[in-house]
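for the recovery benchmark. tokens below, seq after
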């Protein structure tokens, strides 16, 4: 059952997910929790190898500095066909690290060079909740049949 969404997910993004056998999802803070949740359910519902950063990556790769670029460049890029970033800023370290890569971002505004699912929300929490919902809409558009509460 495909539900209607108020957010437009382009056919380019849908096709990229369909064609990929492995997908890395990255976020920061609350968006990292969304990334981990989305990667887990994408694995389960799309039968793809999907993963997100573990806390070991943050400390081992970053120390007290930014770890996002290192995780994307040293780990995710070599292990995934597609990279998906979740960020509330199109100029964030995550967005910058995904430029010139086979990548997609979920962000409040369209990125100039990375295909974007625009989540136009005013607060961080609204953005996080809507982003997770849009991952489910994306999964359905890629053929997933999501379980019903009544089943």
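predicted aa per position
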């Amino acid at each position: 059952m495909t539900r209607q969404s108020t957010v437009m997910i382009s056919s380019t993004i849908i096709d990229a997910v369909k064609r990929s056998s492995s997908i890395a999802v990255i976020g920061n803070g609350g968006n990292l929790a969304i990334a981990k949740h989305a990667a887990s359910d994408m694995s389960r519902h799309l039968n793809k190898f999907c993963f997100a950063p573990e806390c070991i990556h943050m400390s081992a790769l970053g120390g007290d500095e930014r770890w996002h670029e290192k995780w994307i460049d040293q780990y995710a890029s070599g292990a995934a066909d597609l990279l998906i970033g979740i960020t509330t800023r199109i100029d964030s370290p995550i967005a910058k690290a995904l430029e010139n890569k086979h990548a997609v971002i979920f962000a409040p505004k369209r990125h100039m060079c990375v295909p974007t699912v625009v989540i136009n929300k005013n607060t961080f929490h609204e953005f996080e909740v809507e982003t997770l919902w849009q991952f489910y809409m994306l999964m359905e558009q890629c053929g997933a049949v999501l379980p019903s509460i009544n089943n």
